Amino acid sequence: MSKEYSGFPMRFAHTGVTQFAPENSLEAFSKAAELGCEGVEMDIQLSGDGEIIVTHNDNLAYMTFEEHRDSLRALTAQQIKQFDIPYRNALKLKYPPYPWTEHFGGRRMITPPDYVENRVTHLITMPEFDEWLATVDYDLTVEVEFKCTGMCPRMDEILAKSKNVSRYILFSGNWDVLEEMQEHYRKNGKPEGLRLGANIRFINDTTMDFVRRSDLWEVGLNNEAFTKEDVEMFEKMGIKVFSNLGDYPEWWQQICDMGVTGFKTNYPDAYTEWWAAKI
């Protein structure tokens, strides 16, 4: 952990630092490492030629602001990488909007005075991200969210050549993907050091049934959807708890008091400032 922040939870920059660069971009992840975040969370999809692309949606319209009717599955990785991703898709608010108690998704946009209209970046592949991660000089943990089925075989090929296996937590919030992931690694075994997670969001009979029959290092739970007793329950099962967002000081205080392991935040810099002022 950074010298400025020496307590839990681990700060996971949700899709990177999106006040600085478009989400899931190498620039956004690099900024998270520059800030000393303990982790980043990223999303992955599959291209038409079977490569893993670091992006949230299965089409390009979301990132390019242009109408693209073709899904990523209709394009090769090289075709996908040619599309410009404008920085106006980033540059979200540095601080969460007020009032602090407001529940929000952190997706509001701003246009700062020094904004450069033609600044762009490009989507990257998972092998390219893995190559960058090897250059990070501290133990940056990476939550990799599978957004579709069918990616485990290609991920295995990437991990077989990776120096970063123990840095990764593979997870999803999609139940079909989670079942596929668990079955794949039951049959094929996990690479040494690899961890699996599940974004279950809420605690109920269905989600706990999945948890009990699965190999999990962590579970993701929505803000205000769990208690300290729930954290202790999962700890007894050998499972860590990650909070899904909840970017307001009242919840920040609660997750510190509850001792959660990780916190996915759209505002890692603002959270760190809050922490520094609190101590």
What does this structure look like?
The protein has 279 residues and is an alpha/beta fold. It has ten helices and eleven strands. It has an eight-stranded parallel β-barrel. Strands 4-5 form a two-stranded antiparallel ribbon. Strand 10 (240-244), helix 9 and strand 11 (262-265) form a beta-alpha-beta unit. The longest helix is centred in the middle third of the chain and has 14 residues, at 175-188. It starts with 9 loop residues before the first strand and ends with a helix. Mean pLDDT is 89; it is low at 98-113.
Number of domains: 1
Poorly predicted residue ranges = 98-113
Strand tally: 11
Name of the CATH class = Alpha Beta
Write out key terms for the chains shown.
10 helices, two-stranded antiparallel ribbon, 279 residues, 11 strands, TIM Barrel, globular, 32% helix, 8-stranded parallel beta barrel, alpha/beta
A few lines on this structure:
By secondary structure, this protein is of the alpha/beta class. The protein contains ten helices and eleven strands.
